[in-house]
Amino acid sequence: MRFRLFAAIGVAALFAISCGGVTDPSNNVADKFSGTLKPGGAIDVYPFNVSNTGEISVIITALSPVSNALMGVYYGLPQSDGSCAPLSNPFPGSLTSVVVSGSIIKGSYCIAIYDYFGTLTVPENYTLTVSHP
């Protein structure tokens, strides 16, 4: 009986090692994406790759000239036409707010930022920081 227990634990450990396990958030990569979003519903899309299962978080780290502008952000799957098919609900966010967080698995993704409800009146410079495994 003990042999089966140890064998099962050994197989589970080997499986976890071969799959790479789950990346601790403290070991995440931080990708920064910057641009200028035009008023009137424009959407900017940036692809990124996740190398392992773990956690994602996205923060708006810079906004100007309107530092309290409300931006929409979501992550999804990149499409052949350059768009981003949402996997998360679009979240409104402002400077230093976490606009996306949760679990993510290995694969190719994209992050999209847009003029939330068309509230921009001038072009808005931004930086998004995407933390992922």
How would you summarize this macromolecular structure in one to three sentences?
Helix content is 14%, strand content 50%. By secondary structure, it is mostly beta strands.
Record the SSE blueprint.
Elements: H1 2-19, E1 29-37, E2 43-50, E3 54-64, E4 71-78, E5 84-86, E6 91-93, E7 98-104, E8 107-115, E9 124-132
Antiparallel strand pairs: 1-9, 2-8, 3-7, 3-9, 4-5, 4-6, 4-8
- Rg over alpha carbons: 19 Å
CATH fold descriptor: Jelly Rolls
Mean pLDDT across the residues is: 85
Strand content is: over 45%
CATH secondary-structure class? Mainly Beta
Q: Helix fraction? A: 10-25%
Shape: globular
Low-confidence stretches: 1-18
Termini separation: 38 Å
Please describe what this structure looks like:
Helices cover 14% and strands 50% of the residues. The protein has one domain: Jelly Rolls (Sandwich), CATH 2.60.120. The protein is mainly beta and 133 residues long. Mean pLDDT is 85; it is low at 1-18.
Write out key terms for the chains shown:
single chain, 133 residues, mainly beta, Jelly Rolls, four-stranded antiparallel β-sheet, 14% helix, disordered N terminus
